[in-house]
Write a structure and sequence with these properties.
Shape of chain B: globular
Helix content of chain A: 55-70%
Number of strands of chain B: 0
Order of helices and strands of chain B: HHHHHH
Radius of gyration of chain B: 17 Å
Structural class of chain A: mainly alpha
Largest sheet of chain A: 3 strands, antiparallel
Oligomer: heterodimer
Number of strands of chain A: 3
Shape of chain A: elongated
Strand order of the largest sheet of chain A: 1-2-3
Strand content of chain A: 5-15%
Radius of gyration of chain A: 23 Å
Number of domains of chain B: 1
Number of domains of chain A: 2
Chain lengths: ~260, ~150
């Protein structure tokens, strides 16, 4: 005889906790924040013995159900986006739950909305953002007007490329190499036509939108809370990304040398 | 370069550059201007420390420390997650130029110049982390000494 389990009454609670933790971890929030949010929401729902354990690739939640047995869930998490608006909203909802302003059903509904919202700057907004970022930092490094403009254009072009290949899964590391490659290659080739271009400053400015600033911040934040595992993981991500970008740039320098007739 | 041009570049560059970066990580819109201001603050501290003759690592440390403190306080005031402001505080002092120079030297087979640049960039990154960490610690002390009235 097939045993058909009846619907567990706690499952909406679990769904809300899972969603909140998942949103925070997928969109570039710190791991300790995911743990804290889940525990805080669980307490807000009036659940007993709420425990949460998060590592950067997974989220484990457990609480004591109404019949006294523990209810547990395991959720595999993939770091997909960098979207701090979603993290902020999920954090805000957990605080509303804590003060009792939201019921379980309302919380689940709101969290679903957050999951599907596009963030403060949707779609092609990333192009002008990259342009602004690269122009600003090129100016900061002391480049001339031409170099500032070229840095912005190169960064916007690379951003468009990344937005294009973002459709494929597992693109993160490849995108870093390609980003570094094109960011360094374009100015190195353009300088042949525009001798006034300050190649080094253009590349330094145009590379800023790719810099793993969020991973660095998360690494320090998690380590400071004593979560060494997550801190290490974010730190390795930051260093690996930086090295891959730099590796792409190295490739670009080598390509230029070959094109100019030099040896490898 | 005249000193006022350098200062103008520092202020405008850090402000707009960081706002661009903040948009790329989708910070909430109302946080954007504050992100820019924090970036100006941390870069000017770094810049000023260099000008009065402190070493590069010390200046980086001071810049990211002050930026981190300002970030934690703004997060508390505006009730937005701290990450938003901390990212903005460190982006202007991240060693993008150093890392590229390292790779450019290595690409030209100038190994010792490349190694030199690489170690400098690593020290800078370490100092940023140290500044952020110290800022978090001090902010926690401030928070426990002066708890906010409506948490």
């Amino acid at each position: 005889m097939n045993h058909i389990p009846e619907r567990v009454p706690e499952s909406p609670c679990m769904e809300a906790l899972q969603l909140a933790g998942k949103i925070i971890m997928e969109n570039g929030g710190e791991t300790y924040r995911a743990e804290e949010t889940v525990t805080r929401m669980g307490d807000g729902f009036g659940l007993q013995d709420v425990e949460s354990f998060a590592v950067p690739s997974g989220l484990f939640i457990s609480f004591r159900g109404k019949d006294g047995n523990p209810v547990t869930s395991v959720k595999r998490v993939h770091r997909l986006h960098r979207n701090l608006s979603r993290v902020d909203e999920a954090n805000r909802i957990s605080r509303c739950v804590e003060t009792g302003e939201l019921t379980v059903e309302q919380a689940v509904e709101k969290l679903r909305e957050i999951e599907s919202m596009s963030g403060a700057f949707r779609g092609w907004w990333s192009l002008p953002a990259a342009f602004l970022c690269a122009c600003g930092f090129a100016a900061l490094f002391g480049a001339n007007w031409l170099s500032i403009a070229v840095a912005g254009l190169v960064a916007a072009l690379v951003q468009a490329l990344e937005t294009g290949i973002a459709r494929f899964r597992n693109f993160g590391l490849t995108a870093s190499v390609l980003g570094g490659l094109f960011t360094a290659l374009l100015p190195n080739l353009l300088v042949l036509v525009l001798p006034a271009l300050q190649t080094e400053l253009v590349v330094a400015g145009a590379i800023m939108p790719l810099v793993p600033g969020l991973a660095m911040t998360n690494a320090v934040q998690d380590s400071m809370r004593g979560d060494m595992l997550s801190g290490l993981s974010h730190g390795v991500q930051a260093i690996l990304t930086a090295f891959l970008i730099a590796g792409g740039a190295l490739l670009a320098v080598a390509i230029k040398r070959v094109m100019m007739g030099g040896g490898l | 370069m005249e000193w006022w041009e350098e200062l103008l570049r520092a202020i405008l560059g850090a402000f707009f550059g960081t706002i661009g970066f903040a948009m790329l990580v989708h910070v909430p819109r109302r946080a954007l201007p504050v992100c820019g201001l924090i970036a100006i603050l941390s870069y000017l501290v770094y810049f000023g420390a260099l000008k009065i003759g402190l070493s590069d690592p010390t200046s980086i440390f001071l810049g990211s420390l002050i930026g981190s403190l300002a970030g934690h306080q703004s997060a508390r005031k505006m009730k937005i997650i701290g990450t938003v402001f901390l990212v903005s505080a460190i982006v202007p002092v991240v060693p993008g130029l150093g890392l590229y120079r390292m790779m450019a030297y290595l690409g030209q087979n100038r190994i010792s110049d490349g190694a030199n640049m690489g170690i400098r960039a690593m020290i800078t990154i370490g100092m940023i982390a140290l500044g952020l960490g110290a800022g978090a610690m001090i902010s926690r002390i401030i928070r426990s000494r002066f708890p906010s009235k409506n948490p």
